[in-house]
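Quick start: read one record
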Amino acid sequence: MKQLLCFLFTFVLWLLLTWSRALPDVAAGVFFALLVSTLLAQIYPENPEKGLNPVRWFWLLLYIPYFLYYCLKANLDVAYRVLHPDMPIRPGIVRVRTDLASEMAKTILANSITLTPGTLTVDIVGQDLYIHWINVRGETEAEHTAEIVKRFERLIRRIFE
């Protein structure tokens, strides 16, 4: 099942990227989708059929503007810090804890944090994420987790777990 879904996803992606229905292009798409699904199906996510659930797509559609809002807010915050004469920063690496169980969910969380300006995921060790933060606020791991992780975690759980 994983290999079949990997093949279908890769083939549809090929068709969308080439935007061609000419026989040579479709044949090349079948060839490369077959090659990719043969070589990479073992690293494809477990239970890929979860991705076909329309409820998960609904939550994904909600997550996109939610993420963009926090991304814009972080962009303005970093721009303020760069343009401020005293450059008020307090950089540091903090450890935060996630309740997400699947590797895919943790990866999406780490990428969401990294794509938000002012934060960068350095490492994931079990349930702990190590984040470089441009302006560390709070003193405890719980405060850091609430500030960085919890805003994304709720929606990511509904999409990927």
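DSSP finds six helices and three strands in the chain.
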